[in-house]
């Protein structure tokens, strides 16, 4: 897919409700927490833990999970390098809309390539917060919640990130959290504290 739009004769219509008006109504600013890490690192668990903690504080949230999105919006995509790029591009665009709506959104995607995450940051803008769920591949493989590492080692899954395909760790993420060294409760608290420090929530 080219970088330029394939659609023609289209015009962007500005919303009749401003972003600051939405923030006033919701009681908080928008935020996009982009959780990236290996399969089994705890991205979805952490994202949902943060969503629950924020919801309990009255913050409007939503979680975009990699597997869930591939059941619908991205069900036409494979796990090839090309389709992974398109997968992240689409999620970036959806996330931008969620941020524009004023929500605090969590995305849980392996998103293994730095260039793709940089593209997502460029699409989403200042609401983008990269969270590297930093967990050693050996720990992820020992967890193997979906049995994917076992299949990858057996050669049943090609291009599996961390085994037969690369993962490019973030160089300067806003947050880096090692889920192998701390409890879920503490990891969630660290993310929430960052959102307070950044001024997204009170």
Architecture overview:
This protein is an alpha/beta fold and 202 residues long. Helix content is 43%, strand content 12%. The protein contains 8 helices and 5 strands; from the N terminus they run H-E-H-E-H-H-E-H-E-H-H-E-H. A 5-stranded parallel beta sheet has the order 2-3-1-4-5, with helices on both faces. Helix 2 (43-56) packs across helix 8 and helix 4 (81-100) runs parallel beside helix 5. The chain starts with 18 loop residues before the first helix and ends with a helix. The mean pLDDT is 91.
Break the fold down into its secondary structure elements and pairings:
Layout: H1 19-26, E1 31-36, H2 43-56, E2 61-65, H3 66-70, H4 81-100, E3 104-108, H5 114-124, E4 128-133, H6 137-143, H7 148-153, E5 175-177, H8 184-198
Parallel strand pairs: 1-3, 1-4, 2-3, 4-5
